[in-house]
Design brief:
Blueprint: H1 2-29, H2 34-67
Helix pairs in contact: 1-2
């Protein structure tokens, strides 16, 4: 179970990085609809960061339960 949580943490962190880079690229391009797209990407990034932190907390709880 702990291995699965650790893998999911890595996936969540990678997705946060991808959305961060996509937001930065969107900001540098500009153009029509850029502000709306930036807002959507920021909301996705915040949600993914929340998921990553929640998975980290879950990992700490599982590790604590395993080690006794």
């Amino acid at each position: 179970m702990l291995l699965f949580v650790n893998i999911m943490i890595g996936v969540a962190l990678l997705l946060v990085l991808v959305t961060l880079i996509a937001g930065l690229v969107n900001m540098t391009r500009g153009g029509d609809g850029s502000a709306g797209r930036s807002n959507v990407l920021m909301r996705w990034r915040v949600g993914l960061q929340f998921a990553a932190i929640a998975l980290m907390v879950l990992g700490f709880i599982i590790r604590g339960a395993i080690s006794g």
